[in-house]
């Protein structure tokens, strides 16, 4: 069982434009898609699509459209009512694949609600193989929320094995994943290129590069990710958009690439990549198998509209090329 936590879920509305986005103009949409979203929710949706056992833990009332969508989509969830509506995030897609996203801050969670959400997660993740802590934190929630949860999961004394912990976030909550002792640090981090640049700087990597440089140079990205692993994180799966992804562990570093696809909407591609990784990991796959399935899932997600997530049969892992990389700078 893979449990996901989305502290700041969203109703994702994707608006397809007939041409390029024209600021200040009235434009007519060609189509609109609406899906329950938020990073952990997307991971759970992708796992359900491939028949894996998962539970999405999130705040929200039963009547909230995000929860109704999960219910209708057959995605198991456990929700904490918070007396406020969840947010809506809007995505504008242009025919050439350019995607513009506007994310709301989301409803504030009080201290009591934060404690209750952690309690719900701890209770429902007993016996889980993985817990995924994903997405931004809503207003009121401290940046070290995920580290606090990781510590609580690991200090659980109920006799069940501690799950592996994956974190996919950005900004301050992501940087906080590197602070403190080992018990608060994740087994797996899933940054994109921009987040990897921030993380590497936070990990003290002096040869810091921009996101564009890391996307263009996987060897440099592997060096940056190796600095993050050296700071106490189990593994870094860094997704590099159309350039594929790298995986860096204490044992090695690899690049995975997929032949070009026609990108329709990249929203949720990173979440699908993480789901692909976890799918292979729970089937006992090697590091390279996990990376291969991550990139196969990411490429399939990018070729689907809105934040649609692929099932494993829609992915093409055999088309993915894996190359070993040197992870340490010379
Ligand atoms: N234009 C593209 N062409 C081919 N594959 C893509 C493209 N964009 C994304 N992907 C695939 O999806 C994976 C994740 O993409 P990306 O690095 O953009 O994630 P992300 O920024 O975390 O996405 P999100 O936050 O929207 O889920 C990549 O590793 C790659 O496999
Ligand atoms: O605002 P956050 O929490 O950083 O990201 C939220 C979000 O952009 O992430 C998913 C795509 O990865 C979408 O479903 C959702 O709208």
Account of the protein in words:
The protein is α/β, with parallel strands linked by helices and about 325 residues long. It has a single domain, classed as Ribokinase (UDP-N-acetylmuramoyl-L-alanine:D-glutamate ligase), CATH 3.40.1190. It has 10 helices and 14 strands. Strands 5-4-1-8-9-10-11-12-13-14 form a 10-stranded mixed sheet, sandwiched between helices. A 4-stranded mixed sheet has the order 3-2-6-7. Helix 2 links the parallel strand 4 and strand 5. Helix 1 crosses helix 9, helix 6 crosses helix 8 and helix 9 runs antiparallel to helix 10. The chain is globular, with a radius of gyration of 19 Å. The N and C termini lie far apart (about 40 Å). The relative contact order is 0.14. The structure holds adenosine-5'-triphosphate and 1-O-phosphono-beta-D-fructofuranose (F1X). The site of adenosine-5'-triphosphate has 21 residues, from helix 9 and helix 10.
Return the CATH class.
Alpha Beta
Indicate the proportion of strand residues: 15-25%
Low-confidence stretches are none
Could you tell me the CATH topology label: UDP-N-acetylmuramoyl-L-alanine:D-glutamate ligase
Shape: globular
Order of helices and strands: EEEHEHEEEHEHEHEHHHEEEHHE
Strand order of the largest sheet: 5-4-1-8-9-10-11-12-13-14
Question: Could you give a short description of this structure?
Answer:
This protein is an alpha/beta fold. It is built from ten helices and 14 strands. A ten-stranded mixed β-sheet has the order 5-4-1-8-9-10-11-12-13-14, with helices on both faces. A four-stranded mixed β-sheet has the order 3-2-6-7.
């Amino acid at each position: 069982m893979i449990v996901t936590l989305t502290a700041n879920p969203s109703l994702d509305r994707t608006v397809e434009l007939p041409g390029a986005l024209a600021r200040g103009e009235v434009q007519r949409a060609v189509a609109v898609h609406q899906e329950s979203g938020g990073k952990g929710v997307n991971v759970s949706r992708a796992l359900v699509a491939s028949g894996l056992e998962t539970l999405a833990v999130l705040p929200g009332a039963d009547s909230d459209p995000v929860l109704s969508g999960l219910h209708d989509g057959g995605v198991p969830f456990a929700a904490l009512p918070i007396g406020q509506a969840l947010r809506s995030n809007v995505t504008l897609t242009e025919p050439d694949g350019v995607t513009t996203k506007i994310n709301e801050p989301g409803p504030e969670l009080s201290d009591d609600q934060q404690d209750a959400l952690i309690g719900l997660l701890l209770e429902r993740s007993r016996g889980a193989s993985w817990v995924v802590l994903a997405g931004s934190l809503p207003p009121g929630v401290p940046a070290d929320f995920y580290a606090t949860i990781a510590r609580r999961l690991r200090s659980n004394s109920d006799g069940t094995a501690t799950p592996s912990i994956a974190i996919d976030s950005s900004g301050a909550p992501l940087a906080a994943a590197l602070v403190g002792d080992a018990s608060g640090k994740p087994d797996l981090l899933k940054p994109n290129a921009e987040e990897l640049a921030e993380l590497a700087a936070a990990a003290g990597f002096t040869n810091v590069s921009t996101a564009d440089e890391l996307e263009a140079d996987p060897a440099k990205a592997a060096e940056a990710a190796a600095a993050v692993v050296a700071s106490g994180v189990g593994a870094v799966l860094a997704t590099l958009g159309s350039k594929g992804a790298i995986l860096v562990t204490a044992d090695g570093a690899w690049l995975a690439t997929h032949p070009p696809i026609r990108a329709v909407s990249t929203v949720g591609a990173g979440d699908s990549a993480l789901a692909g990784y976890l799918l292979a990991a729970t089937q006992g796959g090697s590091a390279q198998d996990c990376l291969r399935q991550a990139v196969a899932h990411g490429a399939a997600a990018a070729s689907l509209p809105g934040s649609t997530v692929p099932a494993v049969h829609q992915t093409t892992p055999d088309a993915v090329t894996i190359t070993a990389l040197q992870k340490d700078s010379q």
